[in-house]
What does this fold into?
Amino acid sequence: MDNSSNTPPKHGAKLTDTHIRLAHGNGGVYMRELIERVFAAHLSAQAAGLDTEADAVQVAALPGAMYISVDGFAVTPLEFPGGNIGSLAVHGTVNDLAVAGATPRYLTLSAILEEGLEVAVLERCVVAMAEAAQAAGVMIVAGDTKVVPRGHGGGIYFATTGVGQTDPGLQLHMNNIEAGDVVLVSGSVGDHGAAVMLAREDFGLHGDLLSDSASVLPLVKALSGLSGVHFLRDPTRGGLATVAYEIANATGSCLRLQQNQIPVRDSVSSICEILGYDPLYLACEGRVVAVVKADVSAIVLQRWQQLPAGKDAAIIGRIESAEALVLLETPLGGERVLEALEDDPLPRIC
Amino acid sequence: MDNSSNTPPKHGAKLTDTHIRLAHGNGGVYMRELIERVFAAHLSAQAAGLDTEADAVQVAALPGAMYISVDGFAVTPLEFPGGNIGSLAVHGTVNDLAVAGATPRYLTLSAILEEGLEVAVLERCVVAMAEAAQAAGVMIVAGDTKVVPRGHGGGIYFATTGVGQTDPGLQLHMNNIEAGDVVLVSGSVGDHGAAVMLAREDFGLHGDLLSDSASVLPLVKALSGLSGVHFLRDPTRGGLATVAYEIANATGSCLRLQQNQIPVRDSVSSICEILGYDPLYLACEGRVVAVVKADVSAIVLQRWQQLPAGKDAAIIGRIESAEALVLLETPLGGERVLEALEDDPLPRIC
It folds into this structure.
């Protein structure tokens, strides 16, 4: 090829556009440049074999049963205290695999970018994605980019699919849950929801509030091999209350929570009081709810509290063989039924 | 639970909303209803074990090496002659796996829906998706739905990730391509791009033009076990010209195409002439380009022409050990260099 303007950029050239345009999604020279300069540049250090030319990527087979999970991300703003849509997109799918008892191995990434997006914002999100993937020990093995016209997107929408392999030390299923089981949470609830809300509007209430967005793998791995761990789930959209409701509904049991045992940061309580939200319905992105046999609950608590991510872990309730509902015992000794989430307290939280 | 308005809909109840609202993406009752009534209702017949409660789904391990591919879909309009975004989202990822020499087994689906989308449109797309998956023998094993506010989406954005297993009868890689190899295409080019363009604007030129959106698995499987099949690719965004350019660029060889051998429907030629597009750059969604050893090219052509999807297959060019470029021989004996696609001839085609 000659060096005319039709020549594709050579490896190592800079991406000269500062903002995404439609041509970055058309399958041609501009798209290849974007993929190489932004996505592959940051993600391929971590996935040495990343083949940006291939339609499909060959990966090593996983022994035993496989787990698959998918999650889409449309959070606004794209960047928030404690993370961005890039780190969130890794943690979300890694955590879905982790709480199913799987060790995440491979991730794929679909990016739907909006014309006019700042390339610098995209790059920061991809860097955070690479760091999160590295920390979780998962490889981003395939990607796809589309660009939609200005006014038809949210800057960045990501979707990640994860493939993992069974951890034989974890036999988790909702069907394992029995009356008498104890319910724990690995840390304070509602941090992510509240942090995103604060990043979205300026309430003059920032303080030290950060999203809890993180991989929960260390929390899950700490329980591997421990008999009596019946079920794990990460409370994301709909928060702790929604997980509690799903457990009650699926098992036909009563889940009784003690309100004064549920860890909620003061800053989260404050913002919820002002705006009329209930922190139990706000998303977490780095917490685990565990349902375990009563006689191992102290061990689970101890193992979690020894980890930085689990220092605020607490026993928050128990399963009873009553009708399927979620009861919240209030500090004053009363109790109320926690209802399933209907209308959206806070859209676009993940 | 009592029968108050907070009770979740029982299985079998109807989705009463006719349009998507933000609450359909919040993790609560409305989202569960949407997933059960629209997604699971159509997709679970085809994936009997689909667990709409689980964060991650366990699937049988695949023997041998695995292939993974991901594709995002933002086509407008959502429905077009010959398909819709649902069938396209299956075919796109199935085809990426197929041309890599893999047999698709599992798909995941991320749906980013826009507030205000008609549920009936979504349902038609999900029905088409289920039919396409069934035909391709692939199971949709996991899904995720997000809802973005009106004015921040395109009605439906889908992303599909596919996991496949190696077909030992196909050893395909761009590195296999050698000078002297013959280039074939399995059918007419540009049908999908032209059909979407016609669906988007009313040019008074509809005729019989349909998207070629289809699984290419039958075309690929017809070549399994045949020695000398070096490389396959499906020409999507950027069309045949972009695949030709990628082959030339990656192999450092000249790809010489014969214009009068490349099948282009009259209706596609007409619309391209009127609007100034080149059909060689328009997307196909159900065609395969093959690069094969010269001495098996007649067998490949014959096997393809015996299939309904391959009846218009043709030998369209050859690989030469000259410099890396794509030459198009014109019917009058001249030749011109086909350039890499730069600006977008037709955005949001897939």
Summary: Chain B has two domains: 22-166, 174-338. Residues 1-13 of chain B have pLDDT under 50 and may be disordered.
